[in-house]
Amino acid sequence: MLAHTLDRVRGIVRPEDVWILTALDLKAEAERIAPEVLPAHVVGEPAGKNTAPAIALASWWLRDAGEDLVVAVLPSDHRVEPTERFREELLRAGRVALERGAILTFGIPPTRAETGYGYIESGEAVDAGSGVHAVRAFREKPDPEAAARYASDGRHLWNAGLFVFPPRLMLQDLTAHRPGLASLLPRVPGPSDPGVDEAIRTFYEAAPSVSIDYAVMERSRHALVQRAGFTWDDLGSWAALARPDALDPDGNVIRGLGVLQDCRGVVAFAEGGLVAAIGLTDLVIVRTADVTLVCPRDRAQEVRAIVERLKARRELDGFL
Fold first, then answer.
1. Which of 29, 96, 289, 290 has the most neighbouring CB atoms within 10 Å?
2. Could you state, in order of their start, the residue ranges of all structural domains in the chain?
3. Cβ of 71: how many Cβ atoms within 10 Å?
4. pLDDT 10s digit of each residue in the chain, 320 long?
5. Read out DSSP for the chain?
6. How buried is residue 211: exposed, middle or buried, by Cβ count under 10 Å (0-12/13-18/19+)?
């Protein structure tokens, strides 16, 4: 997925301008996958603190990179198609962010009443025909009834977590809305400077765990949403494996070895060994060497809650 994300911007972003922020224990693997990215631009986070600290750190390092520069935040666990349309719209978003002094986020026209995604309620068009709108509100993950309304009213868009902005504008909004986080940044030297690894560790120890949506976007006067013309899906949940082109005639999808008898709408993933099931409907079944997960497909996004419970139990750390 990381390689696909890098391919998506190939030709419109120079390799020396690419940054990867990932978990510290994945840093070496990221460097292997992306040898064209400068080693100093592959940053390992010593702790997972959601998106705001990572975006704050990147904005801090890029604040003096030029007045005509924008940052594009592109999570790697997304499926985006077609690539050429995405590149066109990303370039347009960069122009809008610079010309209007905006923090622009992409909104995806919903194709289903999805309860696992946040939504953005779009307002009036900024420019006729541009697809860029004011933001009326950010909506949390809805219940099924609200999701059905959002999917049909034409105003609500999936919040894709894709952002484009001038770095100094992001720092300005962080200072206004999350001053505690912003105040930690001046203690972090440049990515190639002596002591940067220790400074990053100290920064993440002190930083709050908060999303950029909650820290900035829901409060910013600079937020705009661009209605996407490309298709998008979040692959951050197991249910996302069930793409239409991957389903068998019964709506099941199997990755690895699996035997599903009289099952409908089951996502089965086996990392070693075999998943076998009989008479099940709309479940996710994941088998790894150490952990087995079973949950309803429409609650697959809640796996994060299990992760938080594991973190709270020291004797279970090895299963994270």
1. 96
2. 2-234, 238-319
3. 24
4. 899 999 999 999 999 999 999 999 999 999 999 999 999 999 999 998 999 999 999 999 999 998 899 999 999 988 899 999 999 999 999 999 999 999 999 999 998 888 888 999 999 999 777 799 999 999 988 988 999 999 999 999 999 999 999 999 999 999 999 999 999 999 999 998 999 999 999 999 999 999 999 999 999 999 999 999 999 988 766 766 666 667 889 999 998 999 999 999 999 999 888 999 999 999 999 998 888 999 998 787 777 778 778 777 767 766 66
5. -HHHHHHHTBTTB-GGG--EEEEGGGHHHHHHH-TTS-GGGEEEESS---HHHHHHHHHHHTTTS-TT--EEE--SSEEEE-HHHHHHHHHHHHHHHHHHT-EEEEEEPPSS--SSS-EEEEEEESSTTS-EEEEEEEEPSPPHHHHHHHHHSSSEEEEEEEEEE-HHHHHHHHHHH-HHHHTTGGG---TTSTTHHHHHHHHHHHS----HIIIIITT-SSEEEEE--SEEEE-SSGGGG--GGG--TTS-EEESSEEEES-BS-EEEESSS-EEEES-BSEEEEE-SS-EEEEEGGGGGGHHHHHHHHHH-GGGGGG-
6. middle
Q: Is 11 left (phi over 0), alpha (psi -120 to 50) or beta?
A: left
Cα–Cα dist 2/30, whole Å: 8
pTM of the model: 0.82
Identity of the residue numbered 241: L
- 71's tokens: 């940052």
Residue with tokens 């007045």: 67
CA distance 140 to 147: 10
Domain 2-234 matching CATH 3.40.50.2000: the answer reads no
The three-point CA angle 133-135-138 to 5° equals 140
